[in-house]
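We append the chain.
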Amino acid sequence: MLLGPLLVLLLLGGTSPASAHAALRSTDPEDGSLLKSAPRHLTLSFTESVGLLEDSFRVLDPDGRRLRTGEPEHSPDGGDTARVTLPAKLAQGTYTVAWRVVSADSHPVSGAFTFSVGKRSLALAPVDTGPTEDPATKSLYNIARYLAYLAAALLIGTATFMAVCRPPDAPVLARLLRTGWWTLLAATLALLVLRGPYEAGQAPLGALSADSLTRTLTSRPGVVLLARLALLLVAAVHLVRQSRRRRPYGWTGAALAVGLAVTWAAGEHASAGIQVPAAMTSSALHLLATAVWLGGLTALLVTLYRAHLTPAAVTRFSRLAFASVTVLVVTGVYQSWRGLGSWDALTGTTYGRLLILKLAAVGLLLGAAAVSRRWTARLATADADAEAVVREKVPEAVGGPPLPGAPGDRPEGSAPVHDEPARHLTHRRALRRSVLAEVAVGAAVLAVTTVLTSTLPGRAQAEAAAQSPAVVGASVTNVPFDVGTPGGRGKVQITLDPGRVGDNSIEALVFGPDGGVSVVPELRISFTLPAKDIGPLDAELTDKGGYWGNSFLNLPIAGKWEMKVTVRTSEVDQVSETRTVVVR
């Protein structure tokens, strides 16, 4: 049951780039800008506060050699910026800047941009911009996060099940508690060790570095993980004491569960963005409700298979599960609104599509829960009928206690006594199957949740896109294309200068799948201003021998123009892509 979600996390973790809550808002110098003199600093602004690494900036000169820069730091404007000092003298040409920071919600964010001093390099050779993601590290880190979710659900859910439902003393439940505790401890230690190489984009062996572990222990994500370890040690003492006293896990256990849930809220999307206090409260309640429901289901399932469980205990858990679902719905709606920001983001962003997948899985989970609830009611009814029949079967002697085995009349139409255990067993088996289905789907829901919590929310993506237009002033826009044939993909690098009303020069370079300059039979670019119903205006590009260009492109009105790029790679194969550019 757990192998499927783990395999999905392994595949997703090794192929997709990291995307977290913070998104790049702007760069200074601007991406693709042409400067008359060299800047003294590079400054990046983000939508949320970010943490800096020793290798947060890699600046490559026009020849692809790395420059020596100062230490990364925040600018005086605040923690949502990253700045580095450049050498005093820079040669003319195009520079590539690769950056990597850690979002406030603990996920690394990386990217690259270019700027030119004096003149632009005609063609940029492929250069090494440094590490982005190590597939092995990211896969192991995501698997550890998933196991931490599972273990927290098992630990909190089993303890709640024992306290509320008061099942018979079963050793299997004590084993479940120990399994949940040890798994959560191991997963937390793994996250702590892998944190350094995960942030830096290094291989797992990077965890052996003393500097890496020291940096992790002094960072906010590291402090959160250390707090989780401390709570686990306190929880171990509490569990030992309660098991010796054979008492339910009361208010101390509830406080520890809340504390563990807060460590997740403090290290995920809820810790950054809008309405942080409300978001962290909602996130903690969401995790607790999930743990009580799914962990309690696991405890219920193993108890149904390994020990006798009264219908009254099953009924109590059914009520507890219904309350958990209510909390999940309320907190889930709030968190979805906070993460998406708009209806368009539901289908137009990766976060939205993952949320749809999670909602579909939760729908299946609720369907299985409804079936379990129906079998719970039938089991309770069958148990009550059996007790009623037995009472009618055994009369009381006058002046004395009931006589065991005394004859009596069975009401007409009632089921024989020996049929009641058979009905009870049938309902019990059906309940086992439905609860097993709930647990299986619940494991898949946690897998999707693990991926969802490391994906850029739609609200942050929309904010970054609104504040970072494709072209502002003289800048470069990279337009990927794919005509669907072997070797028919690449990108077009388009430079618009100065990006203002009036005459502009436009240059376009076509790069093939290998990163080198590619020759294509035809390249067309047109501009349309939908707000004023102007265009399309043909850029009238001509082949300049290695690149396409025109020095007299007139854009008469300021606004957001739609730039349509059409690339023809053969007599029959062509594709068109559209980007928005801002003309001042």
